[in-house]
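Researcher: Going back to the complex we discussed earlier. I've cleaned up the inputs and rechecked each line, so this should be the final set. Can you rerun the prediction on the complete assembly and write out the structure?
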Amino acid sequence: MHKLWIIIQREFAVKVKKKSFIILTILMPFLIAGLIFVPAFLAQMNSTRPNRVGIIDQQHLLPDTLMRDTAQISFVRLYTGQGATLSKSHLKHFISKNLSDDALTTYDAIMVVSDSITSANSVTLYSTSEVPQEVETYVDKRLTEALRDHKLRNYHVKDINRLIEDANAEYTVRTVRLDNAGNETMSSAEIAGFIGMILSLFIYMFILSYGGMVMSSVVEEKANRIVEVMVSSIKPWQLMAGKMIGTALVGLFQFLIWGLMITSLFMIATGLLGISQSPATAMPSGMDAGQIQSIVGQDSGLEFLQVLQGMPIAEIIVLFVLYFIGGYLLFASIFSAIGASVNEQEDTQQFMMPVILIFIFALYAGMFSMQNPDGPLAIWCSYIPFTSPIVMMVRIPFQIPLWQIALSLLILYGSAIAILLLSSKIYRVGILMYGKKPTFRDMIRWLRFK
Amino acid sequence: MDNFIQAHNIRKAYGEHVVLDDVSIDVPRGKIFGLLGPNGAGKTTLIRIINHITMPDEGSVIFDGHPLCTDDMLHIGYLPEERGLYKKMKVGEQAIYLARLKGLTAREARTRLKAWFEKFQIMPWWNKKLEELSKGMQQKVQFVITVLHEPPLLILDEPFSGFDPVNAELLKREILALRDKGHTILFSTHNMASVEEMCDHVALINHSRIVLQGAVDDIRERYKDYTYSVEVAPDAQLDGQIDIVKTEEGPKRKVLIVHKPQDETNASLLSRIAAQTEVYAFSEILPSMNDIFIRAVQNDELH
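Model: Rerun complete. Updated structure for the full complex:
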């Protein structure tokens, strides 16, 4: 046992001291946080300078309260019908001047109201380039509402004003929801799927890279011929176990560091989002909830975090670690056997092919499981040990029955131990076999060697 | 005789291929035992079995009086023919790691390693990665690592290959010194000169079997072909009764290589020659291990 511990220590130390490990460990959380938060921040940055829309309403046909400032749009009345009306050519000149002047006074769009807003084509938006999408959407929406109100009022129904108010109140709430669904945000099922996919990619990456590490380390020892010195001091199973445990500890160590770093980055990032949210809440009291929420990007980030907080995070982490260890045991055993059988790194290719195919299949199964987490493919692949770590990571955020998880883990660990025992037999013979490249048949023959 | 290692009737086959067939050797305590044989004869497999790396299909190994077990690995130092250490690991760190696997504490290993490094004057290598050293330097490091835990049994597979003459001499001195301290040394080699110089006992393996085994002196005695070197006067003319194999002329003396009939005594041969000329020197020529090796292998091939 003491010797096993010495080997574990070395395997751990050698891998943790590697430059590539240190760099990847430090950079990865920033990359992930960046992937999640950069779009949110970018969206926020856009909204820091609202679109300026100038309104030319010579006959004062537009009700003052209709076009209200939002986080992204501010309206300025340029010309109300107090004085003389401008001629058509003057108007054109006035518009182009206001659209193309220096930066401070430039408007992104000019809205010209030429007729009562209840008639068609009464409002026109002018712009030098495209009219910003959000401006057009907002103006359309408000005008439609006004038009509808107006038309409803014409029916002379009793208490029509109260009815409209009632209806409008409800309508406002619903537009907000439509906005969200239509634009940036995701429902919690989509977020669960997204988290599941990230987790399965992670476990895929973890198992493959750490399993691969075990393999290249086995190949290196064999190619270096140090393995003969090693097995004159310790039993081959101790070397293999020490290597696998040491490497797994490196993986868990990296997982721990990433967990801590990502948690703190999330806290910093939510802190930043929270602070930048205050100007929005400090906006004029006339703003409704919908306008506050329609700050694009920000609410998607917030909602993501909210859904994330709603997830059983502790359960996910525990299961991730359990599935990583199980999957790693299974695949690292296979990788050790392959590594021990070949003479140099290049020879591993032919044996790796089937293993990689299994991984790719598992990833595909995972993707399909995201769409249908309780379908037959998802459930079957949750029990097959070669695919279960990846597929289960997709399914777990959808909250599946505990007995399914227990059964899948039982099968995974059972077969991992069986494969480990077989692999250690191949390993024991393989590490001392030099010369011609072995075939699968040779490897099976080695199982019977004393 | 007190044997440190005894291998009894070892048989090992990989599938159909028999690598060792009924091989028995006795390695006397505190002696240098040479394991000889052409490539592919099964030496490395036998060495691995004695090292407890490979298990024999049949037969047993007795280590210091008891059947070989896992703990005995701590008391063996093994220098494999294909040398190998971790290339990227620092020399000192690596030696301590391997010594700890042989049961030394880190502190003990460090102290002993320092002593060896100072003796060989290679202290500056301590913090170098192995790959920064030359092949010869790596060999030296590996030898130190092999003996660091002062094992009672040293197994050296081709210890001199890769050493320059100066370092080979150094290595030879160290091996002899270790023997004088009571270590038992088993080494396999093709270098027959070193066998004659160093080995007390040898075993010759050919085609998975032992074809010759025993003390070097006994074997040479057994293989002697009654050849003598006689120094005589340069003008000596011997009659046809003396079977002269070869003559080496010299200005002051002539050296004759003479073959003696097996049943004749040395005194009789000498007096026959002395009757005809002045004899300055008379000595028996024992066959070299090289000749014996070749003869034994060829003999074995015939059967």
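Model: Worth noting: The radius of gyration of chain B is 24 Å.
Researcher: Good, that matches what I expected from the previous run.
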